Amino acid sequence: MSRIDDNCPHISFNGDALVHYSKQGAYGDKAKRQFEDALSRTLSVLWQESGTGRALLLAIEATAMENGTHLEIVPFTPKEQKDRPKSAAFTSVLFWEKAAPKGVRGFVGKVDDPKTPQDERFERDSFRGTGEGSSVEMHYNPFALGDRVKRFGFLVHELFHALRDMSGLRNPVPTEPALSSYVNHEEYFAMLLENIYRSEAGSDTLVFYDSTEFPEDQKTSVGFLTNTPYGIPNRRLVNKLVNQMTRLCSNVRDLVDLHVKFHPIREFMHHKMKYQVH
Predict the structure, then answer these.
(1) Do 59 and 41 belong together in one domain?
(2) 30 and 156 housed in the same domain
(3) CA-angle at 172, arms to 170 and 173, nearest 5°
(4) % of the chain at pLDDT higher than 70
(5) How many structural domains compose the chain?
(6) What was the pLDDT predicted at 206?
(7) How far are the Cα atoms of 12, 104, 145, 180, 198 from residue 230, in angstroms, in the given order?
(8) Does 73 share its domain with 91?
(9) Of the residues 13, 127, 214, 236, which has the maximum number of CB atoms within 10 A of its CB?
């Protein structure tokens, strides 16, 4: 049985998957309760202490009510951890057609294999999206080892993916060469939100999707959007995100403290004429 989050009625969490491990003596009902209690505390902290987190949770609630969608968070199991050793979370879309933009035959979302002549990132879906928005299942480990900023960063990243799926906007368009470290637009947007969260949390470690760290000149809002071979593509994608998800971006702009060093969304929205791209 699922538990409903106190702050967000359209987010539930269910630790039942951990009960299945009880036969091995490793987990059981206690693990289920521990997972659900930890997740409840984690979301409460995100709501209370992070403007980025609250903006995402507010947008998820509004989108869920509009589209009749739902987000359920379940355990990132030990088996999944073995399959994804560098992660602590991932999302699973329940209805791919509904998660994709209406009338669009989007991209599959593969990573390029350098051993093949073609770029697999450009492979297209076999269907056209409906844009209705899909309910989502997120797998997350609130007990992941490592520093708190990284653990919460994973959560912010996957909450953004869930919001895109629930909004019917998911389309992993391949990034242009200057932004190849992000692979596609969906990962670019998710990393943008994750890095704003990291900066908000006081971390100076901002990273690309491939986990490499930003050069120093990109670690500020202005530096990220400056008139350079990487800054101009950044402007294009920040502009796309602001136009597609104005409500979310407005909340992120307004709820994140003004003193946060890295906040390209606020910088772009406050100075649109300066950063206009064609």
Answers:
(1) yes
(2) yes
(3) 125
(4) 96
(5) 2
(6) 97
(7) 39, 28, 33, 10, 21
(8) yes
(9) 13
Rounded to whole angstroms, the Cα distance separating 83 from 244 reads: 33
**Considering only CA atoms, which of 131, 126, 128 is closest in space to residue 165?**
131
Q: Is residue 246 part of a domain?
A: yes
> DSSP 3-state assignment of 184?
strand
pLDDT digits (tens, 9 = 90+) for 8-25: 889 999 988 887 765 554
Bridge pairing between strands 89-93 and 136-140: antiparallel
**Backbone torsions φ then ψ of 74, nearest 5 degrees:** -125, 170
Per-residue model confidence (pLDDT) at position 29: 78
Query: What is the greatest pairwise CA distance in the chain?
Result: 62
Mean pLDDT check: name the lowest of 86-90, 127-131, 157-161: 86-90
Helix (H, G, I), strand (E, B) or coil at 37: helix
d(CA 120, CA 113): 7
248 CB neighbour count, 10 Å cutoff: 25
pLDDT band of 139, cuts 50, 70, 90: very high
Buried b (16+ CB within 10 A) or exposed e, 97-133: bbbbbeebebbebeeeeeeeeeeebeeebeeebbbbb
Do residues 140 and 182 both lie within one domain? no
Q: Which amino acid is at 195?
A: N
Note the pTM of the prediction, 2 decimals: 0.94
Q: Show Cβ contacts of residue 161 under 8 Å, excluding neighbours closer than 6 positions.
A: 91, 136, 170, 186, 190
Residue 146: strand pairing partners: none
Rounded distance between C-alpha atoms, residue 44 and residue 3, angstroms: 14
